[in-house]
Amino acid sequence: MAGFRLLVGLGNPGAEYEDTRHNAGAQWIEALARMSQCSLCTEKKFFGQFGKVFIGGQECYLLIPTTYMNLSGKAVQAVCQFYKISPQEVLVVHDELDIAPGTVKLKKGGGHGGHNGLKDIISKLGNNRDFGRVRIGIGHPGHASQVASYVLKKAPSDEYQKIEQTIDESLRYYEDIVADNWNSVMNHLHSFKA
């Protein structure tokens, strides 16, 4: 059956990064784990928080790397090697500067757009970019020099609520997203605005 077997939510570990814009992907996986009654446990050999869950009858793995963002590929690579998962079976959920808060886009393949987590995953997967992405819009601060501090800050509450609504909305379709039934989901999600 086609679909994604490894679902990865990107973020930075530690209390000071909780709820920051850069952790939108990790929040998505945490919410999915709660919905699926899956407890994520720290798994040292996978450098992350890890859990197994059945989605649409298929066993899937949930992963939130506990390395820093720019080393996210280490965790993805470890799980892929252990479970023999190909890059095409990996879905990465991450924050996206190029789309506004309150929006979400699905995408397969492509570059990293300067995202350090994606950059490291691509390199650790042998420069294979063919994995799926759920891109959660966080908006852009307007200038490249401001990006680093922007992504590591908590969004103001109205923006944060939009990001949360986007996560909730996309999770309504998590079974289709994971099963790679993207056509109908994309029509809906790509026109959704929180």
From TrEMBL:
The feature of type site (Discriminates between blocked and unblocked aminoacyl-tRNA) is located at: 12
Q: State any single GO MF term.
A: peptidyl-tRNA hydrolase activity
Record-linked PROSITE patterns: PEPT_TRNA_HYDROL_2
Q: Matching InterPro entries, A to Z?
A: Pept_tRNA_hydro, Pept_tRNA_hydro_CS, Pept_tRNA_hydro_sf
Major location (coarse): cytoplasm
EC numbers listed for it are 3.1.1.29
Gene Ontology terms: cellular component: cytoplasm
Catalysed transformations (reactions): an N-acyl-L-alpha-aminoacyl-tRNA + H2O = an N-acyl-L-amino acid + a tRNA + H(+)
Judged by the first EC level, this protein's enzyme class is hydrolase
Alphabetized, the UniProt keywords read:
Cytoplasm, Hydrolase, RNA-binding, tRNA-binding
Gene3D superfamilies under this entry? Peptidyl-tRNA hydrolase
Q: Which GO terms describe its biological process?
A: protein quality control for misfolded or incompletely synthesized proteins; rescue of stalled ribosome
* Location(s), subcellular: Cytoplasm
What the record says about family reads:
Belongs to the PTH family.
Q: What does this protein do?
A: Catalyzes the release of premature peptidyl moieties from peptidyl-tRNA molecules trapped in stalled 50S ribosomal subunits, and thus maintains levels of free tRNAs and 50S ribosomes. Hydrolyzes ribosome-free peptidyl-tRNAs (with 1 or more amino acids incorporated), which drop off the ribosome during protein synthesis, or as a result of ribosome stalling.
The record's HAMAP family line, in alphabetical order, gives: Pept_tRNA_hydro_bact (MF_00083)
Recorded protein name is Peptidyl-tRNA hydrolase
Question: In which organism is this protein found?
Answer: Marinomonas fungiae
